Amino acid sequence: MTVPTGRRERKKAATRQKIADTALRLFLARGYDAVGIRDVAAEADVAVTTLFSHFASKEALVFEQDENFEQRLTQAVTGREPHEPLVPALRREIHAMVRHCTAAGAAPIRRMIEESRALREYEDSMRLRHAEALATAIADDPGLSPTTTTCRAIARFVIDAYALAREAADPDAAVDEIFQMIEAAWEVACPFPAPAGDGSGPR
């Protein structure tokens, strides 16, 4: 996420974080369904309209890092070093994300999401948005030439790798195992041409 530099931007970011932190504390203490938007606004000492200027819905309060997650994924594509392969760059980012979400203290939040139909449905729609954003970033990369279907499929695989690995007994090993399959699929869909003159053809 871009770090706000101006005073106004820093104030807005601080207010947003305060609202999100307050909401999460109340949800975990009382239960997600037992806490309303007005409860969060009152506890955070902001108007309901202010809350909605930062978060579009109650569900969005739980996924405060939604925007950051999407930006990190697309940045893994657009910000990688020249000639760095795509899949290793994505694997590195998913490793970091999985370690963050499986760190100490994350389990209660995960349980809350799994126990709420509204939160599960929101997370499903969020994952589809992230996959589409990632697919667009891959398609727009001038060094790559995959089809639209390949971009969307690989992006879905990457998002699913995050979801599956965080539930595994060994998340790091799960990321590596899943990305071996993603890399194999990518190489089939987008083989690199062999150097000119070696007669080996595409690999």
TrEMBL record:
Keywords: DNA-binding, Transcription, Transcription regulation. Coiled coil: none annotated. Residues 13-73 form the HTH tetR-type domain. InterPro entries: Homeodomain-like_sf, HTH-type_TetR-like_transc_reg, HTH_TetR. Signal peptide: none annotated. Residues 36-55 bind DNA. This is TetR/AcrR family transcriptional regulator.
